[in-house]
Amino acid sequence: MTEQTAARPEVSRRRLPGVNPVYVLVVALLLAIFIMNPAFGEPTGYMNFLKRVAALAILSGGALYVIVSGGFDLSVGSTMTLTLTVIGSSMLASNDPNSTYWIIPLMLGIGLVVGLINGLVVSYLKVPSLIATLGMMITLNGVAFMWSGGAPRGYLPDTFRFFGRFNISDVPLIGILPVAVICLVVFGTILWWGMHRTNYGRMLHAIGDNPQAARLAGVPVQRVRISAFVVSALTAVLAGVILGGRGGVSVDIGSGYELQAITAAVIGGAQLLGGRGSVPATIAGALALEAIFTLLNLIGLAQPVRLVVQGLILIGAVALATYQRKRAGR
Amino acid sequence: MKKTLLAVAILGMLTGSAFAQAPNFDDPAEFAKQREQLTATFNGPADQPYLQYAGDAMVDTTEFKKEGPWTVCFSNAGVNNPWRVVGYTNMTEEVKLHPEIGTFTHVDAEGSDDKQIADIDDLLAGGNCDALIVSPNSTAALTPAVEKACAAGLPVIVFDRGVTTDCPVTFVHPVGGYGFGIQAADHIIANVPAGGNVLMLRILPGVDVLETRASGARNMFAEAGLTVLGEEFTDGDNAKTKSIVEDYLQRGTIDAVWMDAGATAVAAVEAFEDQGVDIPVVTGEDQQDYLQKWRDLGFKGIAPTYPSYQWRTAVIAAVNTLKGEQVPGPEWVLPQPAITQDVLDQYINEKMPPLHYAMCGCEDMETYPEAWGGTK
Amino acid sequence: MIDAPVIEMRGISKSFPGVKALRGVSFACARGEVHALCGENGAGKSTLIKILSGVYRPDAGEVLIDGKAQHFSHPQNALLAGISVIYQEFSLLRERTVAQNLFLGREPLKNGIIDSRAMITETQRVLALFGIRHRIKPETLVADLDVASQQMVEIAKAISLNAKVIVMDEPTAALNEAECEVLFALVDRLRASGTAIVYITHRMREVTRIANRVTVIKDGEVTASFDTVPAPEVIVRAMVGRDISEYYPEPAAPAEIGKPVLTIAGGSNASLRDIDLELRAGEIVGFAGLQGAGRTALAMAIFGAAPLTAGTMTLDGKTVRLLTPRDAIRAGIGMLPGDRKASALVLMQSVRDNGMLTARSFAHALGRRNSNRFIGIEGMDGLLDQMKVRAPSYEQEMRFLSGGNQQKAIVARWLALRPKVLIFIEPTRGIDVDTKASIYHLMRDLARGGAAVMMVSSDLPEILGASDRIVVMRDGRIVGQFDRTATEAELMLAATGEAAGVAA
Amino acid sequence: MTDTPLTASKPPRFRFDRHASTILLLAAIAIYIVLVVALGQTRFLTLDNLVAILGRSITLGITAIGQTFAILVASIDLSVASVISAAAVVTSVVMNGEPSMMLPAILAVLSLGAVVGLINGLVITKLEVNPLIATLGMSLIIQGVLSYYYNNFAGAVPAEFQVFAYGSVGIVPYSLIFMFALAGLAWFVLRFTRFGSDIYSVGGNQDAARLAGIKTARVVIGAHVICSLCAAIAGIYLASRLRSGAPWIGAEGVYDLESIAVVVIGGTVLAGGRGGIWGTMAGVIIFSLIDSIFNVAGVDAFVKQVLRGIIIIAAVAFYAARSQRPVA
């Protein structure tokens, strides 16, 4: 991933040889799916696939902010559950199509508060983020159950489900274009821009790389760290909107997504404990995860085998990245 | 990497070498018994299914007769899914109907066997219980704890999943998993010509009530000459359910979707809807969202049930026991009706939450529907 | 005169990404001798020692012990071969007791369990050699000791091994005069008992005092080797490799020194007492003192990282309260930390990102990363060019650069903000000789440009060569001020408390 | 570069973080007693009830003892839940109701634990994979292999073996004695053996430990072997308690995250090198007490969860807030 070149500094790192292995992985997996199931090559095939992956991809992109800043966010799944079950369906939405326009901002508001609390607890109470967000995860799941009484209390109106469910049809060239895919492109771009094209993104890398050095260089470490948790929580809400739109609500809709998001980022080459990570590669990581499931499904492998494959890929990806870095370093 | 593979190999050897037969979920005798019970007539008042029972066997409970007010303790496996939420509401509302119950102590094991055993220990150590109701998280694991409670002289009522001891006063449960599977499979066989493709969607492997639902249906499809495209586990996740159905649709036609539980039935229906494909036969359960979807889209549906009114029955059994009255036992088998097209409308109530289980037997209570999250 | 060498290193070479740290270095030390290894910061002494102690493996060359070739793959091999090292950066565990640290990894066992009593007795015995039995209790946590005591524990740890060879890497950095004398007496005793001692220092006084032989390295090569201790000037010339006069820039002419930029009156906090200080535009002020004397604490206080709790500070005549580094930077103060790796560098980021970091921190967070109101990417590249940062590309990750180039990139970070006050802490630690000279010139250029420069250094020649004025600190106080004509001896006396300095 | 004490040796200050777990434990006990008295339910103050409380969390306790080793050495183990499941299943399958198979089953399970720990340790030290990822991956692999072969309770333990979970001396269950004996053994290892000392050293500062000649990789691997062994023992206990093992019982008890939580609440620092077994045991008892308090007070299951989450954060914040180290 690091280049060794004598060229002048203008040459960008990302374009140089060592392609991030995750891209190779994704292409290989998609090809394999295509070979096994040619229908995948048609717009409905791959668009359905992208639609399916949109929520996880956006979520992972947000989770990457926290990972790059040197922390973990285990509360994203429960944030999805909370905002979706409680606010989206239970308290407000019950079948009123017009409510969507203010419910989504309200959900984002709650996400903001959750992210702020996570960030404040980690920054000022100095609770390690693993524990802080674990506590938050348990708490939010409890709150979701408490307020909803254990089951969703209402339906999501179609206007709400638009983002995760609706396909725009008769689009030239590709036939159908799911709204979720548009969301993926839009939010993916925003996340990419924030991480890789702004001063903020560079500061985020710096605090994950070496918080002490960042502090002494004048980086507002606490503020940047808190904002990373906020971004993560907000993307969790967005991912929740898409996921809820796709499948409708259930009380455990977000469970397990926290680890999947971290997994996607790690497969995308992000460094746990901070300092390194790429939004496009993380999105590719999410694609790879989903593609693995789809492929194993096609092959007809049993669920347990999928777990084993996922475990091996996870360890393998990190071991490979470590090996590559070490070789570049010595 | 090599080491990891080695680990897998070793683990494989260790587990594989000691391969033992999993519990038997394909029991023809039980299957036949349940098939019969589905259509049998039940004793008890016709409009109160939660008081009905199959057979005539009764248990004498005079030894437990006690003056009120009583403390009734309930060790719950968990309220971790909507069915249990509805059931638990049934139960608390039923408790309110019995002034003799002075204290109702509820401890929640949050879905953990280990914790539920500890909870029962806690109740025995300091709970002052006059009767103990147990909804076991799993059958074998909770048996010692239940035995311990029996040995302490408490009348124990078990419901939903059973235990492998007959020391409880009675075990309250509906007909059972085979029955559920039979109702759904019968409906599919009746509506899909031989040679049709059936997709079986499952929640989780290993849960006894769900395994029996599947094994019965699987055999029936084979007999009827239907092709089972696959048996897929959805983890009760709507999004995943949708993905699975989409993937199968890409590869061919589906004539029917059989489900072992209704939680994700709507997602399966939507997958067809979103692909612009005609909705085939899709079986579900008595959740409001499925019933309404079924009515609105007019596909050929059926909703076998696993009635949540058994939670009421458990309380009633405890009360009767403490009164010293006879209760049906050692098993109190409740009827397990399926909701069919003819009776669909009477179970739909749009004022109820989407995952309300219509077969709750709770409409006659005063606090209905608010206590269940509905509106008048 | 002396036996065959106990240790012998032949033709050792070692490279790191971006630097060739050692080139064909040979070195030997015999039983009963003290062999001084001299060299500037960054000359390669520490790398050589780390090869000797099994931390690094050499790219070429061999290490012989008692004439037998060794292949150390782990520090344990070196320990077992009889080599013990007093590291410059302490290798103590702060949360463990003195006794536990002394016996780290080789706790005495009795019936398979750790014999705590033996550990404590033995610790007391070793500490008694220093005459510090009463000062340091074996059961005290290292974290509760002051820096000098920690240094003593570090020394005691190495000595308690009863090794054939003891390597001492600048063991006196934190010790006062009396403590140094105790150490020298100990060294004499060890030598008499036949231990081979490799003594690393750049203090000529110590070389003269205890060494039998001297080897000088510069830029990773042996430049001189003496079988008897020559005059200090000879050693210094071998270390520096050219005339001192070129090495350090011209001092400031009196006219160049302007009005006070920063003043502190009665400044105190947990580590500082009654600091009265004036830093003037155009002037470089060197801060001398032992480790832990409060120099770094003062720098941190000015920079807002560990603020003063009492006293006043003014900047350009206005009273300021700087509670965080951000406050300080906003007010125009910059700082280059001494421990670059821990406190300055973001190693996984590019050279350019390291340079831009502070400018970005004060620009709009969502602004473009390539330029902001302080500096654009071209401006930063220009600065890096001007600093002669050697990197294949400024997109290169920082971790691949040599210490000198890293330091230059950090200097560029501050230059981009044009600070009024720039604090350098140990500016040349771990930096090659050429870069050192350029850092000194840069400090001078900054001062000429009107900035006030504060330099904290443990290297007395550097203090004397690069400063216009010298402040000596001890125990959190300023104990003396000197002009650049002072001698090393005068500074040492003031720093160790034997005599008060005369105000310049 | 650290500064600058003014006296030769600082007066030994009160080390708050070393006593925090005791303070928390006392606070939990006090709350429990106050609550019980306030609710007039003094029957909860009997010896029987004390034993019931202590006996609540044997599985968690045994697992947490192992987890303490992993965290002390600055690692972490997310695979314990899967190991528990695997161990329980192997126990009950190998025994399959035969008393004569008890010993082979235990040996098989212990070797399983040792192998898993060894692989975890090797992946972490030799492949240099972050411990969270390494053990998460391991967890998925074990879970996958296990569920491939079994999807329900499998096998059964003989009645003789249930004595482990259900037998008692007087009113004190064997399992409780066993847990405290194991804790005592762990304490002994950490306090009195060179290996224990090495664990603190490697966790405290891996570089310093290496310079002192400690083979750091071996220590990390050793800690992981102990951690997995403890998880395996917890699985054996659980099989005895549940009469059988199923592939989900570890995940169902959330023993991975809970064991980490109790270790941290017990004052062991996630960064390694500081803490100890008795803190962990205090953490375990605090968790049991919380459960009991909730049961006594009749707290709704959902509210219970909310409170538990807040308590975890608050307990850790209780002493972490004072630390000067940056965390992330």
- The CATH topology of chain A is ABC transporter involved in vitamin B12 uptake, BtuC
Contiguous helical run count of chain A: 13
Spatial order of the strands forming the largest sheet of chain A? 1-2
Biggest interface, chains and residues, is: B-D, 48 and 64 residues
Overall description:
The complex is a heterotetramer of chains A (330), B (376), C (504) and D (328). With 330 residues, chain A is mainly α. Chain A has helices at residues 21-36, 43-68, 76-93, 100-124, 129-148, 158-165, 179-196, 199-209, 211-216, 221-247, 257-267, 279-299, 303-329, and strands at 167-171, 175-178. Chain A has a single domain (20-324), classed as ABC transporter involved in vitamin B12 uptake, BtuC. Chain A starts with 20 loop residues before the first helix and ends with a helix. Residues 1-17 of chain A have low confidence and may be disordered. Chain B has 376 residues and is α/β, with parallel strands linked by helices. Chain B is 41% helix and 16% strand. In chain B, helix 6 runs parallel beside helix 7 (208-224) and helix 8 crosses helix 9. Chain B is globular, with a radius of gyration of 22 Å. Chain C has 3 domains: 1-82 and 164-173 and 194-244, Rossmann fold (3-Layer(aba) Sandwich); 91-162, no CATH class; 258-496, Rossmann fold. Chain C has 18 helices and 22 strands. Chain C has helices spanning 45-52, 75-80, 98-102, 116-129, 147-159, 177-192, 204-210, 232-240, 244-247, 295-302, 325-331, 340-343, 351-361, 377-386, 403-415, 433-448, 460-466, 488-496; strands spanning 5-16, 19-30, 34-38, 60-65, 68-70, 83-86, 109-110, 113-114, 165-169, 196-201, 213-218, 221-226, 260-269, 272-280, 284-289, 310-315, 318-320, 333-336, 421-425, 452-456, 469-474, 477-483. In chain C, the strands form 5 sheets. Chain C has a 6-stranded mixed beta sheet with strand order 6-9-10-3-11-12, with helices on both faces. In chain C, strands 18-19-20-15-21-22 form a 6-stranded mixed beta sheet, with helices on both faces. The longest helix of chain C is centred in the middle third of the chain and has 16 residues, at 177-192. Chain C starts with a strand and ends in an 8-residue tail after the last helix. Residues 500-504 of chain C have low confidence and may be disordered. At the A-B interface, helix 2, helix 10, helix 12 and helix 13 of A face helix 3, strand 8, helix 8 and helix 9 of B.
Question: What is this entry, summarized?
Answer:
Chain C is an alpha/beta fold and 504 residues long.
